[in-house]
Amino acid sequence: MNGILLVDKPVGMSSHDVVAQVRRQVGVRKVGHAGTLDPAASGLLVLGIGSGTRLLSFLVGLDKVYDATVRFGVTTTTEDAAGEVTAAPGIGTGIPPASLQEAVARYTGTFPQRPSSVSAVKVGGRRAYQRVRAGEDVRLAEREVTVYESVVASQRSAQEHGVPVLDVDLRVRVSSGTYVRALARDLGESVGTGAHLTALRRLTVGPFSVVGAPDPESVGPDTPLLPLGAAASRVLPGVTVAPSEEQAVRNGQRIPVGVAAGGQTALLSPAGDLLAVAHDDDGRWRYDLVVAVTSAADRRPSPPHPSAL
Questions:
Q1: pLDDT tens digits for 14-29?
Q2: 38 is catalytic
Q3: Catalytic-role residue among 38, 80, 186, 273
Q4: 42, 68, 135, 239: least surrounded by Cβ within 10 Å?
Q5: Cβ(250)–Cβ(76) under 8 Å?
């Protein structure tokens, strides 16, 4: 099994849990993921199986789309529902629709965001959440993020701790490294009520969708994978090499570019297999990754994953 596997992670499992379970169920030692998803969140997790793990570094950093529910009127220590309540002022007589839209617009675009103190960002060699759990007061430096789109899908009134709150469902498309928990926190501060994230589901990672992706429990040795050539071609420009050059690329021998290319490029065999990821270096390909093929079976592309169609 060599390729990319898209799975629908359920709430309650960590990304590490999913990798360990899939590793056992498919009987392949080399399994990795292209970016974590919090245990409290559900949705798309992109896995590399076998030689597919080598492609994962080229899939990290893709834009993502989430469905998120933000509860206005209550704040927590972790900025999500897993934390202890720090304040519950409620929303009073309500949040004017214009104020909510103004807050959403304010946090759409490119802006500095302070990551959640319970994030996995490293501070002095330790994860921020580890320092928080040890009783340290952690405040992380801001970093630039982009929220390309933020749409209010629906909203409804509720009660928590005896005060009225407002649950707002958002669909957001964000750059890699954007913390949706932090976005919920900032929206709450903007309208003056405070807020925290109560639900999060990842719908897409770059061109890959959760639609049709299996849950980890149903993955097995016969689960179809997205072939490396198809996966790489969806995130990188693709160039098909001549049949006479295929073996040279497989052996890591540099060949003329032949076609104008910009940045990293997926080099494909005439059959559509991924041979290498390379960049133009003075008219010849310089390889960032060469995919070794160890058997005839490895040369046969796997059937496409339903969620990749």
A1: 999 999 999 999 999 9
A2: yes
A3: 38
A4: 135
A5: no
